[in-house]
Amino acid sequence: MVKRNPLSDNEKRLNELAREYEAQRSEGKYVYMEPDDLADLCLWYDNNHDPDKADEVMDYALRTYPDVTMLQIEQAYRYLDKGDLDAAIILANQIENDKTGDLQLLKIRLLIESEEYEKAEELLNSYPPDDFDPIMVANMFMEAHFSEKAIDWLKKHGQGFEGEEDYMSILMNAYFYSGRYQEAIEMCEKLIDKDPFSAHYWLSLARCQLALGEYDKALDACDFSITNDEDMGEAYLTRCNLFALLSNDRKAKENLKHAIELHAVVPGDMNEMDLALLLDQDRVEDAIKLMNFYLKYLDLTEEQIVNTYFRLGVCYAHMRWDKQAFEYFDKVLEHRPNDAEVLTQKSMLYVNQENFDAALNQLKAAIENEPERKYLYRTMGIISLIMKNYDDFRKYSSISDEPLTEDELNEAIKMAETNDEFSINYLLEGVRRNLGI
Q1: Whole-model pTM?
Q2: Which of 3.40.50, 1.25.40, 1.10.30, 2.30.230 would CATH assign to domain 338-437?
Q3: Alpha helices for 48-130 (secondary structure H)
Q4: How confident is the model at residue 238 (pLDDT cuts 50, 70, 90)?
């Protein structure tokens, strides 16, 4: 297969920078690179699954250019990516103000990560919108997992940028991560019109089509992605998943082999994006098929296997296939006997079977293992109410995170006493809501 889309000029530049950096460092020489080049090189190593080398480059950059604000800001974001919010905040507070707006956006992002959403919005709105590149603000929202806010900001402040590839690309991603797959497809098609040889755009299109169950179309898009870049490991992985969903295990395994060779299947990470898309769209039976393929053909760690058992249990519970759900939840408990989430899921299965005593026992075990789950007392109270154990209902309500008033207690008891189907279903729905199921 011939690559129709050779390395971009920027990719060639980064490959050359990497070779130059490694050669000079191996000889103990000083590396003559501009701050921008070192920042780009750091990101390149991250994107190529070499975080240790990325850390080394950033450490070298900061030692060489200790007063360059851009590098300090990049390091703060790296702390965020590693989950070290405190270190990012400390570093941000040490940076002197810059004129680009990048520091302001960093501080807004840190407020969001600290769950101080109102302060973040106040700070963002305190600056004229023209102070910031709208694409940068949208990207900040995306990195903080606020896709809808990214869409709103682009729509409101992105006038004049609509035809730019960066604008269209981030809007496509925002639609995708918001679960608005049809709108994401429309943006993918516009991007492909601009750059028909982009393997990434074709793969994005394939994933949207996978989410919508358009598997044959998704396979075609994967083919175009791989035709444009034969080293696009993620496209092989998605094609593997699609063949697994179409029950063609032979072709699925062939593509899985290529995905592993191209490091698209990273050890310790199942690369579950396609599975997440199925679950997002409640494509439960297809999700089960894909997870069984993983269990059969992927070299999973014990933790990954157990987590897959849990997801299978949840899927079967969603389908009301209680026998299979119990089997998988019990497999999890063999490894994690005190897993409160599994015990909670099993309690709902027992509620559906009207085995309320067993449901209460599961919830009692869950809250014994994780006492902070005080909301479970609300659930135990509702179950006791359905069983007409009103003393227990009052007891559990009093120690829950949202205790009822005396009037509310009496009103609930009056409802339970009516014993009609509507009231019981209302109470059962309350159990599901409290358990988040």
Answers
A1: 0.77
A2: 1.25.40
A3: 51-64, 69-81, 85-94, 102-113, 117-125
A4: very high
